[in-house]
Every structure is written in structure tokens, then in C-alpha cells.
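Work Package 3 (structural annotation) set out to generate three-dimensional models for the target panel prioritized at the project kickoff. During this period the team completed the workflow that converts sequence records into C-alpha cells, so that structures can be stored uniformly alongside our sequence database. As a representative example, we reproduce one entry of 307 residues exactly as it appears in the project archive.
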Amino acid sequence: MSYVISIDVGGTTIHAAVLSDGVIQTNTITTYDSYANKDKQVIINHLKDIVEDQIKELLKLQINKTIKIKGVGIAFPGPADYNEGVSYIKGLEKYDSLYKVNIKKALFNTISDNLFIPKYLSKNFSIHLGNDATLFAVGEFIKYKNIGIKRIACFTLGTGIGSTFICEGRVVKGEFGIPDSGFIYNAPYKKGIVEDYISKKGISNLALQHGFSSDINVRELAELAKDGHTDAEKVFNDFGVCLAEAVNPFIYSFKPEIIVFGGQISKSFKQFESSFSENMIYTDELKVKVSDTPLISTFAGANNLIN
């Protein structure tokens, strides 16, 4: 039986799991430190160690030890050339040491030199990278297509805004009003671009406008809003308006059946749901959801890179 190791690389933590025929082996789901501020080789070795650890976790579950790993699918933040596997992250204080590094090649070579891993790899073993927001969306589409959904728009709200539009299983780029990149983060909005307003930075700027200090975080603001703090409620109200205004042109042109949100900020969706809904371009068919399985969806999307 062949398996795929899915790895979700985040700024603070890395999550990994083994999948077989698209089904997650739940006992293998593990969280690791990201090592995002470490040197290049330290990070590559860390990814290799994660692959080794996942194989060992899988071996614990198998009576027959003759397993074969078909590939490793990695959800990685942008910017990057995902086909080549090269990171272009720079100046974010996370994974800066991987700037212009071919992660696929470096990891493949490091794995090949390992004494343990190669004997568990299939002959056609491969490593693929994909945009983390896109792989999340692919996983969500896989989930929703089972109930007949054909068009889905996914947005991850966090340090920045990730976006992916999928039509009948195909990631849309350069059509239906969607940018050639498929991403809307750098689309013009107000006095800048979408990501200036729809991001952690965007909420921080709104918080400053409403009298909060610069060091308050989204979680703290959300707690205050839940407790009825008027200014905190105004921050999220304004954010919901900005979010609707920013995505409306793309929702209008693409016409998805469902919008799915992920990312850390989406955990506070209840705080800006009302203002977002009031300013959205809705059709009778459009549904809006916050993913209840974002990690599982990302694993499924990463698995899809190999299969």
C-alpha cells in the first residue's frame, strides 16, 4: 500500500500527517515547531526529520512493515514558484533563509542521504509544493463537491489574505474576473491594495483608529468585542465592511455557490459577520461558511499534489 505525507508549513508551527487513498491516518497527525527563523540547512533537516517521524508513526500502525511512501506534499506560504519549489519569502522574519532556495531539490537530496527513509520510498517518490491557501481551498472543494457544490471561493484571513477560486475542480486564474495569479491580495483597494486592509496589519490599523494601543492582538480585541466593548465592536464592524468591499468584485464576477473562510482571523468571524453580510453582494444561492476542518482540508489539498 502506498502513502502520502502531507505537511502544512506555518510561521509558528508545522503540522504533518500520513494519508492513504486520501484518508488521513489520524494517529499520525503531529505538530512541530516551525524553526522559521533558523538557517537554511537547519530548516531543510527539520523537514527531513518530520518525514522520518511520520514514517515511524505509520510503522507503529502497520502489522505489515512493507510500506511505500509515494510522495510528500507541502503546503507552503508565498510568495514562491510552486512548480519549481523555490521560495521567494523575504523580509517577513519567517523562512527568510529559504529565499531563492529550491526546497524540493534540497529536501529530496537530504532525504536521499538519510540511512532510514529511502527504504520506505516508492520508486516514483516525489516532492511537491503548493500554496497553503490554495491547498486549503482544494481540500474544502473535495469536501463540498460531495454535496453538489461546483464553484467555491476560499479566503484565508491571517497575516495576509489568501484566496483561491475553484470551478468544477479547477483552480481559476485569469478568467471570470479573477487575476492571472488567482490571488487578490495585491488588487487595488482604497488607498492601497486589499492586503493593506484585510490582514492582521489591517485590523491593527483599525484598532489604532479606535483608540487601542499598537500591541493589542486580534484575539484580545475579539474577547473585548464579545464582552460588549463598544470600540472593539467598531473595529470588527469596520473590518467586516472592508472585507465585503474588497471581495465583492470577485464574488460578483465569479459567482461562487459558497464562500469558505479559514485562517486565524476567521476564528473571530462572529464579530464581523453582521457587517460583512450587510455589505456583501449576495445571490439566493450563495452560502458563507467558516471551515470547521481547516487543517484536514490543507492535508487533503497537499495529498492532491501527489495524487
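The longest helix spans residues 230-254.
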